[in-house]
């Protein structure tokens, strides 16, 4: 249940709150939610998922715990919205890079490269995601972001590979196996980079792209 505190941290019962236009209140709420999410990212990345308390997140955001409770039903919802916000930013960045690209070779290069480019400038987000994916569990004790949560990504990559096969660019192979393998390669690329911060992420992305292009492309002599 939400408290009777407005997004600015003041009581929601005063006349000034009533006089605030709905559009302005909506914008204030959006900004406040983003501020809290950014604070959650910073705290989780710095302290780890288990030690990141709502009190610490509130302190980092410069608000009270009551303000967080106004915007989020609990830590679970805050974490889920945090993951969504990170992926929305990443998705928009990758989509802008992929716009106008044609052919599987170009798609592979831009897809892997743009994901690496985005995360290279968002190391704190990457660290927070790693903590969340490793430790955030459902009420049943299962990982909240396990293999099943990647289904949408697998399906999209499968479609790209199938279209490449239909165009004759790619050889015959199991598109699900290749999609899962590509995503595993990307995940491991970031895991290695987090452990070895001086590792050349851009060069790693290029090598990964070449690896999967050579593994999937149709034989130049017309054989698959």
From TrEMBL:
Residues 1-25 are annotated as: Disordered. Keywords: DNA-binding, Transcription, Transcription regulation. Signal peptide: none annotated. The keyword Iron does not apply. Gene3D superfamilies: Homeodomain-like, Tetracycline Repressor, domain 2. Residues 53-72 bind DNA. It comes from the Bacteria. The keyword Transferase does not apply. Residues 30-90 form the HTH tetR-type domain. PANTHER family: HTH-TYPE TRANSCRIPTIONAL REGULATOR BETI, HTH-TYPE TRANSCRIPTIONAL REGULATOR RUTR. This is TetR family transcriptional regulator. It comes from Streptomyces albospinus.
